[in-house]
């Protein structure tokens, strides 16, 4: 373009300076409310803290060494990984399924869209209370249905084999609404013409899904996968209300374990060390995701 | 590539389009801003009143904050009591503010303790006693008791025993409860058992549970909660930690994995293996629902849950003492619940207000109301002579059992209860141990693990203590 | 284009069944909210009568209207704060190439990975030092900067054709004017999404509002929900469920009313 003038040095730094102004609010807020506490957390992770939460005894890497040896913490890591594996893929597939259904142009589709997105409007606290009831060992609906159908009853939240699955089910439900809305938005952005031309070629539904929908949806999918992963690693409310980390620590996800160490046991040292480890894990996962995921993303 | 003409066309259209939405965004943000500033100033006004109590000039009253962790029915009753206090005199005003669970409330207190944001009175659960004494944030109520010549003998001695440390009372007991065993009388009859005679020892409970077990109903259950384990150890005279249960010095070693603790775990393990024990988890409401819907015939509950159990059950409900090991004498129960703490470093008239309120809380009338509303004990036994309490007792004799069990308790180090600062953490260790036990783990092994965890927590606490 | 009848029936069938499954928990809570204690324990699905007793009790026990208003103020405040702060940042990331931009963006994104629970207690001390306990500032301002929002808007801004930027420079628009009068309007879709997200997540916050409020002057509804449940005494589940229904109705209503707008916003999508 002719109007494009070769930028001088003043102009170039000008960009940086203006950019800084635009970034300033975020930078200040992040520094005060995220980075400062994070550094404090890292600092505390090398200490044992006293009953008032102050650093009292420098112990170097002892907190980390203790955690990596402790079977409870390893179990917590395992539970967290399992929880992420249970909730993220299934949650996104279900949301995608709903979004595909709700993307059909039919009468009354608005109603169904509202229903699918409804769980986004229900807080974790409220939905966990509801699910607590659904899972109830003696009066819960699930066990009632099982007994009517003559199946053996399941101790949803009390059996260590089942508890994590039960919590995952309720988590998937809670997250469906949000993923659904994002995916539906993505679907509606896909150019109709792409489908029309493929229809002329006589391509079937699943062929179109594979060859047009998924590739065109990939930026949205990438986005929702990133968000879901991070959210799953940080799930807390449902654990607190449904299981409190039990039975036999089977649902003691890292974030809950951090909360417990910090809020109930008041051991900021070990809580901080756990937080640092969790941060590193999420960091690695996200880097991997960006590295391998973004390659497959198809930008329009 | 678009031509320049087209681009400016796009721009123009956009500008027009925008004007309307921009306008709305502006209006909205303005509205929000004004709303915020307005409400901020409101809150600041309210705040300054609360921050500097005693300066409530319009009424000339000393106003103090009272932090509590009572939700549901407890909050309802407590609010009514506080209102009663505010109306009973015109010098002081108490503001009762809910602060979340005991843990959440204590976390907050730890953070604001000693600052101007600290309340005059805080309700802290019994296992926080040791922490509160060590914290340095509090004024022992003993100083006001001495100053005011308050007669402590009017209060329930078995409750005072728990909160007295080295003969001094640090906090005013408030909501107090003990464990009881609740059972389904109708089920007893059906199984051919005497509904008026509940099993008393571990082996009797095991045998009775066996008889009560049907396809739909378990014989016995206990909430997976450390408190019940502590009680079953204490009633055998067993100690929880060394240093006389932490009362003669900072405890350094857990003792609950000794023979008394093992008795309890074996007791539960026997029934669990025999299939007569029902596991209903860690949630108070779940186990009660199981009892009310006849999924379990006997279970351990708090005395504060008796009223609810009777009201919700479509059958006759019996209440009995908690069981004890066959080879020992019954010692009784340890008090549970919470007490009221006064802050140090606040204005003198605020402390006086707090003291007046605490005294008001111990009156028989207030305690009678509290006992009837919530099922917690009256810390002032005279409350039991009040007409309304007598009426209720006549109707539900089960209530009396809970009080008798407390009054029958043999005073001693075991039943005085353990004093350790890391109690909440230790209770979690017990919960995990119980859960592992129900999954078939070895009783001694899981107990030892819990003891080890508790030891480490105590070690850290002692190491970092100032 | 038309859909064949059998296919239509099949789709409607799937829609109905899955909607029922998704909505069942809410429906169940709604039913329980009318039940008395013993009814609930008998595990019924339909209440004997639709009496509003539990609802009266909820409003009687808590200053629920006040809580609702507080929740609303806080959620709207966070929503606008986030929109402003995040769009400014995203704008800088997309339209202002400068050295180290990718690095700073990555630092921003990394904040998403820091578990909030871990930062909560230091943040509490900060708020206390600022004297922001029991204020709306304390409830809102810490949440204004949001990596997720910046990420979302950046993804969207990237799809805006560079030509538009050039055209604006020719038309003599200043940087800020371009941002305010061109970028924001064409990004309405993402702004609506982010706004909805910000509103709902703030509405649903629990632990933070509980920590930094010590009285009911600025408390939000989620705390109210907690107050309805007893710890040691038995909980009146009918009342709790009535509380749940009252708490979720405003957000459901908002979703319902905003559905069209949200949908429209989302479908306008990126410039083609």
UniProtKB/TrEMBL annotation, chain A:
Keyword Repeat: no
Top-level division of the source organism's lineage: Bacteria
Domain ABC transmembrane type-1: 77-289
Annotated Pfam families: BPD_transp_1 (PF00528)
Originating organism: Filibacter tadaridae
The family this protein is said to belong to: Belongs to the binding-protein-dependent transport system permease family.
Classification lineage: Bacteria, Bacillati, Bacillota, Bacilli, Bacillales
InterPro entries reported in the protein's UniProt record: ABC_transporter_permease, MetI-like, MetI-like_sf
UniProt name for this protein: sn-glycerol-3-phosphate transport system permease protein UgpA
Membrane topology, from the record: Multi-pass membrane protein
Keywords for this protein: Cell membrane, Membrane, Transmembrane, Transmembrane helix, Transport
GO annotation terms (biological process): transmembrane transport
UniProt-listed Gene3D superfamilies: MetI-like
UniProt key word Protease: no
Residues spanning the membrane: 20-39, 81-102, 114-134, 162-184, 214-233, 271-290
Subcellular compartments: Cell membrane
GO cellular component assignments: plasma membrane
TrEMBL record, chain B:
CDD domains hit by this protein: PBP2_UgpB (cd14748)
Family from the record: Belongs to the bacterial solute-binding protein 1 family.
InterPro entries (UniProt xref): Bact_solute-bd_prot1 (IPR050490), SBP (IPR006059), SBP_1_CS (IPR006061)
Taxonomic superkingdom: Bacteria
One matching Pfam family: SBP_bac_8
Phylogenetic lineage: Bacteria, Bacillati, Bacillota, Bacilli, Bacillales
Gene Ontology cellular-component annotations: cell envelope
Claim: S-adenosyl-L-methionine is one of the keywords in the record: no
Cell location: Cell envelope
Signal sequence segment: 1-34
Keywords: Periplasm, Signal, Transport
Protein's recorded name: sn-glycerol-3-phosphate-binding periplasmic protein UgpB
Keyword Signal: yes
Gene that this polypeptide is encoded by: ugpB
GO biological process: transmembrane transport
SUPFAM superfamilies: Periplasmic binding protein-like II (SSF53850)
Native source organism of the sequence: Filibacter tadaridae
From TrEMBL, chain C:
Transmembrane is among the record's keywords: yes
Subcellular location(s) of the protein: Cell membrane
Membrane-related topology note: Multi-pass membrane protein
Pfam families: BPD_transp_1
Domain of life per record: Bacteria
Protein keywords: Cell membrane, Membrane, Transmembrane, Transmembrane helix, Transport
Domain ABC transmembrane type-1: 68-258
GO BP terms: transmembrane transport
Residues passing through the membrane, by range: 12-35, 72-96, 103-127, 139-157, 178-200, 237-257
GO cellular component, one term: plasma membrane
UniProt cross-references to PANTHER family, sorted A to Z: ABC TRANSPORTER PERMEASE PROTEIN MG189-RELATED-RELATED, SN-GLYCEROL-3-PHOSPHATE TRANSPORT SYSTEM PERMEASE PROTEIN UGPE
Protein family membership: Belongs to the binding-protein-dependent transport system permease family.
Stated name of the protein: Lactose transport system permease protein LacG
Gene source species: Filibacter tadaridae
Organism ancestry: Bacteria, Bacillati, Bacillota, Bacilli, Bacillales
């Amino acid at each position: 373009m002719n109007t494009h003038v070769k930028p001088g040095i003043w102009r170039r730094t000008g960009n940086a300076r203006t950019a800084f102004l635009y970034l300033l609010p975020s930078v200040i807020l992040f520094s005060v409310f995220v980075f400062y506490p994070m550094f404090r957390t890292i600092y505390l992770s090398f200490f044992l803290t006293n009953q008032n939460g102050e650093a009292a005894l420098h112990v170097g890497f002892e907190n980390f060494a203790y955690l990596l040896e402790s079977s409870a913490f390893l179990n917590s890591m395992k539970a967290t990984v399992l929880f992420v594996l249970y909730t993220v893929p299934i949650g996104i597939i279900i949301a995608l399924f709903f979004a595909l259904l709700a993307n059909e142009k039919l009468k009354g589709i608005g109603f169904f869209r509202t229903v699918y997105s409804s769980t986004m409007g229900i807080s974790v606290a409220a939905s966990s209370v509801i699910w607590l009831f659904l899972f109830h060992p003696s009066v819960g609906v699930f066990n009632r249905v099982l007994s009517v159908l003559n199946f053996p009853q399941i101790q949803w939240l009390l059996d260590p084999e089942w508890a994590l699955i039960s919590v995952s089910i309720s988590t998937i439900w809670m997250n469906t609404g949000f993923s659904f809305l994002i995916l539906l938005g993505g679907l509606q952005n896909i150019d109709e013409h792409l489908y029309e031309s493929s229809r002329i070629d006589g391509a079937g539904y699943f062929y179109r899904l594979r060859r047009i929908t998924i590739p065109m949806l990939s930026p949205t999918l990438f986005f929702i996968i990133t968000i879901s992963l991070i959210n799953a690693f940080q799930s807390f409310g449902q654990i607190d209300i449904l299981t409190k980390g039990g039975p036999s620590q089977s649902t003691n996800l890292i974030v809950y374990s951090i909360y417990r160490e910090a809020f109930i046991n008041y051991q900021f040292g070990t809580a901080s060390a756990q937080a640092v480890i969790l941060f590193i894990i999420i960091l690695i996962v996200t880097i991997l995701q960006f590295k391998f995921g973004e390659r497959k993303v198809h930008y329009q | 590539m678009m031509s320049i003409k087209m681009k400016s066309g796009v721009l123009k259209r956009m500008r027009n389009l925008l004007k309307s939405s921009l306008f709305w965004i502006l209006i909205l943000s303005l509205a929000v801003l004004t709303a915020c500033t307005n409400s901020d100033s409101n809150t600041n006004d309210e705040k300054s009143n609360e921050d500097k109590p005693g300066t409530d000039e319009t009424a000339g009253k000393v106003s103090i904050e009272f932090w509590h962790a009572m939700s549901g029915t407890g909050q309802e009753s407590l609010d009514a009591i506080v209102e009663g206090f505010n109306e009973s005199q015109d010098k002081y005003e108490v503001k009762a503010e809910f602060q979340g669970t005991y843990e959440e409330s204590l976390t907050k207190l730890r953070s604001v303790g000693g600052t101007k944001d600290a309340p005059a009175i805080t309700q802290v659960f019994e296992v926080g006693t040791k922490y509160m004494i060590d914290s340095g944030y509090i004024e022992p109520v003993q100083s006001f008791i001495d100053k005011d010549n308050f007669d402590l003998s009017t209060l329930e001695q078995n409750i005072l025993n728990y909160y007295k440390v080295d003969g001094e009372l640090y906090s005013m007991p408030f909501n107090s409860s003990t464990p009881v065993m609740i059972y389904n009388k109708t089920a007893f009859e059906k199984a051919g058992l005497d509904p008026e005679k509940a099993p008393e020892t571990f082996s009797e409970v095991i045998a009775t549970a066996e008889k009560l077990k049907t396809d739909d109903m378990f014989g016995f259950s206990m909430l997976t909660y450390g408190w019940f384990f502590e009680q079953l150890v204490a009633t055998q005279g067993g100690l929880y930690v060394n240093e006389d249960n932490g009362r003669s010095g900072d405890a350094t070693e857990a003792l609950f994995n000794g023979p008394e603790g093992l008795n309890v775990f074996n007791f539960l393990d026997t029934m669990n293996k025999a299939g007569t024990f029902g596991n209903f988890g860690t949630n108070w409401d779940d186990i009660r629902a199981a009892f009310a819907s006849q999924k379990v015939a006997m279970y351990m509950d708090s005395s504060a849950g008796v009223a609810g159990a009777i009201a919700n059950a479509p059958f006759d409900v019996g209440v009995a003492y908690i069981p004890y090991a066959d080879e020992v004498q019954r010692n009784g129960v340890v008090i549970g619940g919470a007490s009221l703490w006064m802050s140090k470093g606040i204005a003198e008239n605020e402390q006086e207000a707090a003291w007046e309120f605490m005294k008001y809380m111990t009156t028989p009338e207030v305690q009678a109301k509290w006992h009837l509303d919530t099922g917690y004990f009256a810390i002032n036994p005279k409350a039991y002579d009040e007409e309304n309490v007598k009426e209720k007792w006549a109707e539900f004799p089960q209530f009396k059992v809970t009080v008798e069990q407390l009054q029958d308790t043999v005073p001693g180090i075991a039943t005085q209860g353990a004093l350790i600062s890391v109690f909440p953490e230790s209770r979690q260790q017990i919960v995990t141990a119980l859960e592992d036990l129900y999954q078939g783990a070895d009783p001694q092994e899981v107990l030892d693990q819990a003891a080890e965890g508790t030891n480490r927590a105590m070690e850290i606490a002692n190491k970092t203590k100032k | 284009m038309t859909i064949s009848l059998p296919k239509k029936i099949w789709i409607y069938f799937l829609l109905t069944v899955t909607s029922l499954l998704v909505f069942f928990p809410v429906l169940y809570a709604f039913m329980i909210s009318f039940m008395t204690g013993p009814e609930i324990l008998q595990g019924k699905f339909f209440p004997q009568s639709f009496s509003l007793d539990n609802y009266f009790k909820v409003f009687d026990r808590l200053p629920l209207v006040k809580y609702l208003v507080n929740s609303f103020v806080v959620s709207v405040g966070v929503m606008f704060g986030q929109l402003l702060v995040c769009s400014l940042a995203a704008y800088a990331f997309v339209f202002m190439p400068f050295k180290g931009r990718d690095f700073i963006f990555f630092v921003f994104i990394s904040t998403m990975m820091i578990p909030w629970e871990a930062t909560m207690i230091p943040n509490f001390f900060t708020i206390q030092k600022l004297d922001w306990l029991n204020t709306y500032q304390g409830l809102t301002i810490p949440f204004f900067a949001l990596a997720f929002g910046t990420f979302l808007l950046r993804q969207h801004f990237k799809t805006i054709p560079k030509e538009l930027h050039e055209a604006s420079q020719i038309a003599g628009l200043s940087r800020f004017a371009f941002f305010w009068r061109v970028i924001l309007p064409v990004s309405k879709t993402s702004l609506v999404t982010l706004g909805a997200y910000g509103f709902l997540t703030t509405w649903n916050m629990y632990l933070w509002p509980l920590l930094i409020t010590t009285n009911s002057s600025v408390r939000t509804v989620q705390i109210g929900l907690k107050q309805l449940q007893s710890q040691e005494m038995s909980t009146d589940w009918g009342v709790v469920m009535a509380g749940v229904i009252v708490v979720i109705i405003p957000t459901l209503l908002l979703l319902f009313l905003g559905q069209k707008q949200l949908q429209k916003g989302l479908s306008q999508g990126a410039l083609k």
